[in-house]
Amino acid sequence: MEKKTGILSKIYLGLILFFFYLPILYVVFFSFNSSKSLSKFTGFSLKWYESMFANSSIMEAIGYTVACAVIATIVSTIVGTITAIGLSKSSKVLRETVNQVNNLPMLNPEIVTAIGLMLFYTSLRIKTGFWTMVMAHIAFCIPYVMLSVLPRLRRLDPNIAEAALDLGCTPLQAMFKVIIPQIKEGIIAGALVAFSMSFDDFVISMFTTGPGVANISIYVYGSVKRINPTVNALSALIVYVVTIILIIVNVVPMIQEKRRNKNNVLKENV
Predict the structure, then answer these.
(1) How far apart are CA 249 and CA 268, in angstroms?
(2) pTM summary value
């Protein structure tokens, strides 16, 4: 009975994964199609990728996307890391309060956050454009950075910073020379998550950008009603970037952990 239940659960999981990933694989597969057909594969070709890089509107959208993601990642990583370090040294009440507030953007539907930011800009009569989109991306990326950094800080020995101060370090030196090197893996993971979230964001970008400023997601949305295989290539580009980031975030730490365990075993044997 248990074996049958285990087999059924695996089949069920396989069907769910198939349902989720089939559309993505479909888009990637037909981005290499030599014809415009979205139902019949006539041969392997890279001409839609060539067409994508030759299209000035698409390249402009890619430029806006990359620039916004890079700026949002840098700022949110710095702010999120400093905030997380400050919270680790704060009182429990303040720490729990800020953590609850920090979780709100992640728990709220994106449409709620997007409309809230749009109304905020409108009430202050701020003209929407590239920088309003960047500020919005920074706002929703910071919680993800903090969520990645805080667990690393909890595992950090609280006496390390105090020892550094006792040995003559200033608070800034203790942070940059002692604390940050100890939590750098969490910082890098948070930065990569922030970049991927910003790179493929659509809803918040749609409500906070202005005329003439469109990232990849907005461009794809505007072109999806027309049969244009170049959009397949552009959509596939997002899949490639996000997949690479996910591999770096999830696989690389596993490899590093295995190497550490192996080195520890070798040291113990020696």
Answers:
(1) 29
(2) 0.79
